Amino acid sequence: MKNMSPLSNPMPLLDAERRRSVFDEVALGYTEQQAIDEARRCLGCKNMPCVSACPVGIRIPEFIALIADGKFEQAYDVIAQSSSLPAICGRVCPQETQCESKCVRGAKGQPVAIGNLERFVADRHSSSAARAAEPNGHKVAVVGSGPAGLACAGELAGRGYEVSIFEALHAPGGVLEYGIPEFRLPKAIVRREIEQLKEIGVRIQTDSIVGRTETIDDLLQEYEAVFIGSGAGLPNFMGIPGENSKGVYSANEFLTRINLMKAYLPDSDTPVVRPSRAVVVGGGNVAMDAARCAVRLGAQEVSIVYRRSETELPARREEVRHAREEGVLLRTLCNPVRINAAADGSVQSVDCVKMTLAEPDSSGRRRPVKVEGSEFSIECDCVIIAIGTSPNPLIRSTTDGLQTSPKGGIITDERGRTSRPGVYAGGDAVTGAATVILAMGAGKTAAQTIDEDIRNKTGML
Amino acid sequence: MGAARGRLRRERQQMYKITYKKSLNSDVTLMRVHAPSVAAKAQPGQFVILRADQNGERIPLTIADYDPRSGDVTVIFQTVGETTYKLSLKNEGDDIQDFAGPLGNPTHTEGLSRVAIVAGGVGCAIALPVAKKLHAQGAQVHAIAGFRSKDLVILQDEFKANSSEFILMTDDGSAGEKGMVTDALKRLLDEGQTYDEVLTIGPLIMMKFVCGLTRGYGVRTVASMNPIMIDGTGMCGGCRLTVDGKTRFACVEGPEFDGHKIDFDEAIMRAGSYREFETKRRESCKLPGWRQTKA
Questions:
Q1: Which of A166, A284, A307, B148 has the smallest number of Cβ neighbours within 10 A?
Q2: What CA–CA distance (Å, rounded) separates B141 from A276?
Q3: Closest residue of A to B103, CA-based?
């Protein structure tokens, strides 16, 4: 009954030409038949190498075996025991460096498409009435409604805690809402996951900026524990001349205008530059998202400028492939040195230099160095800087005794405890910009720690 | 402790009711909005981010007054764009979709004993709570307020009540003295008045000239910046400006900066980023009474 094909079932995709003008989801999802066929490729290894590479430890061979038997709801139940957001993770996890990288089938051919299967199960799952756990009478506040906060809240609510999430923006979801575009993660799915959390009793207070509207100390007066999952923070800029010209955005701003504020829709009041030629600086998923949004806003030419080579691109391979299919140009080994503007301050071009790779640096990646005399120019009317973020100062500057690293990230132990008793943290606020799944893993771990600590403190059984 | 608890609960409502509305002149509206958790924390110099309705843009408005007991926050705004236009159509009893804050750092007033406040247009609304606070802590406050003409003058009595000297300037001389706020400030400085600090709030071009003037006199000057923003929490960097050669975010590091170090020309250029979009929408919507921005 095993399917011994070396190739995985390809994910059905929206036609690349059509994608260039719509924000509809690109990956269409497996059919039942494709899912069963793919599930039969799993060998059900006893030592489960894939599980060891999953940040939340989903029992992967177990749920895949259930798919192979056509027991999709049961497969969902297995995933749900480890992950609170499977429809999201199936779409945005870097499976190629996690579960799928350890799949035995990958040694001679393609690994089992675990992410596609996870997504299939989550999408098929009818949101049957989620049951709220028996209340245990304890209250926990969660700061931020992104992946870390949602995972923490879900885990705690499942254990009977009364959980309130405080979200700074007007819509919950954090990076799932403002950052990742509709064509990669439909907002209806984010809303559905959030609704399910609400059904089990999680409350979400929007428009509430912790560090301003409430401080951590205010929250500690009402809640026994506070989890900080406030996210990555302030966008980095390159510090090159012309960076404040009109038409130069941080990726956060460009994506927020499009995703959170829906600037691509005609009835939105929020403006966004509709570029004809855009340059995106950076090589991560955020850079790919920004480039693909620029394509969809009508840009004729979109270039990604990245200072290392294609091998070092931190983005998911699938995103790079999809971006290419949509016509995005990858200009690797290339780094901007100056942004030139017209007399009215609007961007006209970016001057770049070619780079070459030297010996590995502290990050283990080969260090890019400038090639002398290689300067060239790219004409453009929009530049989007996607080179990472620095921690937000709002919480650390208003919370006494909360230890942070020299760079400003919150310091925690491996269980999510900060230097302040009763205060926990996880996700990008601790690690700096990382992935959705790592943030979820941190949120879940912190929830378990909060549960243990409150049990120990109160003698609760 | 109990108050904090009650407040967190009360604000489960997701909308924010307008409790009072008054037109200050043809362009400028005062609104009190019920937002207890903002009112509880607000201080002079801080701002809120609001959305008028579901499709609304997020815009920053500086807090003009606040009352922690009633839970009301006052904003005063000039109708310059779509959001302020939509807002101006709302009435007492109507709801505002989102009203988040207080954001930004409060105005630094500690240890100041002689201050000149130089404000222009709707910027006067923002300057007033600072004047009040300084006046209440016993500082000498010289307030200079500039408007285009008599019809646009706002908050004259309030400024008089909260300053030891008040000078009203209009471009056309139809009220107060004819001339620019910088004319009045220059006169005071030439008369030998000394200030611990000059605080300037208003149109960018006015603040640029105020800072240019005080630089020559070596008087420390703080300018309150109001750039384009989205989230207001440091996430987007849209509000960035150059201060002392460095990129700074007005929302989390400001909104006030050393006026002698701000790159005003860049700020003026960036403020015009969406003028074309705004014009287009204004034309396509054919919104009555929605006027062009006045610099």
A1: B148
A2: 52
A3: A212
